[in-house]
Amino acid sequence: MSTTATATDSTTSEEVTGEAARRRTFAVISHPDAGKSTLTEALALHAAAITSAGAVHGKGERRGVTSDWMAMEQDRGISITSAALRIDYGDCVLNLLDTPGHADFSEDTYRVLSAVDCAIMLLDSAKGLEPQTLKLFEVCRARNMPVITFVNKWDRPGREPLELLDEIEQRIGLRPTPMNWPVGIAGDFRGLIDRADGSYTKLTRTPGGATRAREERVDPEQAAQAEGAEWTQAQEEIDLLGEIEAHFDEASFLAGESSPVLFGAALPNFGVSQLLEALVNLAPAPEDPVDADGAVRPVGAPFSGQVFKMQANMDKAHRDRMAFLRIASGRFERGMVLTHANTGKPFATKYTQAVFGSERSTIETAYPGDVIALVNAAALSVGDTLYAGKKVHFPPIPSFAPEHFAVARAKDAGRYKQFQRGIAQLDAEGVVQVLSSDVRGEQAPVLAAVGPLQFDVVAHRMSEEFRAPIELTHLDYSLARRTDAGSAPTAHALSGAEVLTRRADGELLVLVHNKYRLRVIKRDNPDLVLEPLLAGGVE
Ligand code: GDP
After folding, report:
1. Shortest-distance atom of ligand 1 to CA 264
2. 200 vs 226: CA distance, rounded Å
3. Which of 35, 77, 75, 40 shows the shortest CA–CA distance to 57?
4. 37 in ligand 1 pocket by Cβ < 6 Å?
5. Number of CB atoms found within 10 A of residue 379's CB
6. Ligand 1 center to residue 37 CA distance, Å?
7. Cα 174 to Cα 60: distance, rounded to the nearest angstrom
8. H helices then E strands: how many in the chain?
9. Which of 67, 141, 80 is nearest to 107 (CA)?
C-alpha cells in the first residue's frame, strides 16, 4: 500500500510542479486613469479569453451585478472588490489580480501585492510616474518584486521616451531596460522595433478602437524607407540605449532592480501582445514558498495557501464572509478538508469558488499561483494559512502605514454589544486597523485606515450587517510610527501626538499630526523609538 501511495504522491507532485511552472500571477500598479481597466480588457482580448473587449472590467458591465456591496461601488463608480482574472494564453495560465483603482484606495490594494509574483507598472505616456503608482511601487520594492513597465497611451501626445526612462531611473532608482522601442513620437505612433532581433511591427489603427489592432511584420529595410525621419530617430535612440547598456538582465529584473520597458497603447491594442509575451517569457512562475520558520515547502508539496483578502456581502445569495486565498503549494480539489493553521481546526471547502472579474463560478481544481475564494469563511482572517498534509504556517502579511484616523462610537448606546462585535470582526478581517488607549476607553476605539474610503465601508457594514450604526469623528493625524513601551513618553513631550495600542498585535503606535510635528517630536525626544510601519517605507 505504502509504495502505491508514494508513487501516487510523486506523480501528483510532478503534475503540480508542471502546473505551477506555467502560471504567472501578477497585478497592475498604476494611478487612476492610466488605463488599467483598458489594459486588462486588451490582455484578455489578445489572449482570446473573451470575445469582445468590454466584457470583463467594463464599467457598464458592473451595473448588471446586484448586491448591497456592488450597489455601493456603483454609487461611487469605483471598484472596491479585488478579484482575480484568469487568462489562458498559449501554454500559460495568467492570473491577473485586480487592485482597487480609486485614489481612495485601501490596505486591500497593498495586500493584493503580497499575493503576486510580478507587477506591471502602467504609466500614462503624458504623465510618467504619478503619486499612487509611486506608493504601490514602494510596496513592490519592499518585497524586491520584479516589475515590468508598460508605457501606455502612445497613440496620444505625450513625453519623449528617453525622458520617461530617465524619470524612472532618477525618481525610483529602477533601471529601465526597454524591450521594444517606438517609431514615431507619442501621438504619431507608427510601430515597434523589437530590440532583441531588430524586427519591426507596424501598427495600423482600426476604427472603433476596441477591436484587435492590425499588427503587421514589415521588413526593417522597407520600414526605414516608409517611415523616414521617424525611423532614423528611433534607430539613433536604440543605438544610445546600446551605449548606456540598457539591456535586459534577468538577475537584476528578478531582484526588482531593473525593469523591462514596453511601449504601447492599450485602447487600440497596440503592443499588448508584446506585453503578454513578456509576461510569459520574463515573469517568474510561483516559487517554492517559505514558512514562518524559514523552511521551504516545495510547490509540489501537499496543499497550502494563505488568505490575502477578506470580503463580505459580495452577493446577496451568499450573505457571509469570503476569504481569497492564493495557493502556495499543492493541488486544490474542491471538497478537500483543510486545516486552519492558526486554530488547528478543520476547514471544509465544499463551496469554493473561482473569481473571474465580477462573476463567480465553482472551481474543481487549482494550482500554485491560482486564487480561490472560500465561502463561509467567518473563522479566517487576512494572513491565515490553510494546509493539507504536513503542517505549515506562513509569515503574516505586513499591515501598511495608515494615514487616516477616526474615533468610532455607537450611535445607540443600547447596541454596544453589537458595536463591539462588529468592530472586532472588521479588525480581524483587516478592513481597518483598530487602535485603543485607556484614555479614550473601550467605547471609543480609533480606526486607522490607508484610504478614507475604508471608513465608509466600516460605517456601511456596522449599520447594515451588525445593526449598530456608528458615529465617526475624524482626527487630525496623518502619520503613525511604531514605538516601544520602554520609550513611550508623556503626552506633554509629544507635541499633541498620541500613543495608542493596535489591538490586532498589541504594538504601540504614535499618531502624529504631520511630518513637521514629527520632526519637533524627534528633536525633543532623541531617545524615542519612532519607526515607519513598513520596512522600505511607504510614507
Ligand atoms: P483606469 O482608471 O486606470 O482603469 O483607466 P481606464 O482603463 O478606465 O482608462 C482611462 C481613460 O483612458 C479611458 O477614457 C480610456 O479610454 C483611456 N485610455 C486607456 N488606454 C488608452 C490608450 O492606450 N490610448 C488612449 N488614447 N486612451 C486610452
Report:
1. 23
2. 12
3. 40
4. yes
5. 14
6. 7
7. 36
8. 13, 28
9. 80
Alpha helices by DSSP H, 309-452 = 416-429
Domains and CATH numbers, the chain: 3-58+117-282 (3.40.50.300), 304-387 (3.40.50.300), 404-532 (3.30.70.3280)
Determine which of 482-491, 504-513, 518-527 has the lowest per-residue pLDDT on average. 482-491
pLDDT at 79: 38
Which protein residue has the closest C-alpha to ligand 1 atom 18?
Answer: 35
CA atoms within 13 A on the CB side of 415: 17
Nearest to 200 by CA among 155, 229, 235, 154: 235
> Is residue 132 within 6 Å of ligand 1 at its C-beta?
no
Q: Three cell numbers at 73?
A: 461601488
- The answer, yes or no, to whether residue 196 has pLDDT greater than 90, is yes
Ligand 1 in reach of 122 Cβ (< 6 A):
no
DSSP-derived letter for residue 414 is G
Residue 131: closest CA among 403, 399, 398: 403
Burial 292-306 (b: 16+ CB within 10 A, else e): eeeeebebbbbbbbb
Instruction: Tell me how far the alpha carbon of residue 32 lies from the centroid of ligand 1, in angstroms.
Output: 9
Counted residue by residue, the chain has a size of 539
pLDDT digits (tens, 9 = 90+) for 265-317: 998 888 998 999 999 999 999 999 999 999 999 999 999 999 998 876 555 55
* 82 contacts 98 by C-beta, under 8 angstroms: yes
Q: What is the pLDDT of residue 492?
A: 62
3-class SS letters over 205-243: CCCCCCCCCEEEEECHHHHHHHHCHHHHHHHHHHHHHHH
Does ipTM come in above 0.90?
yes
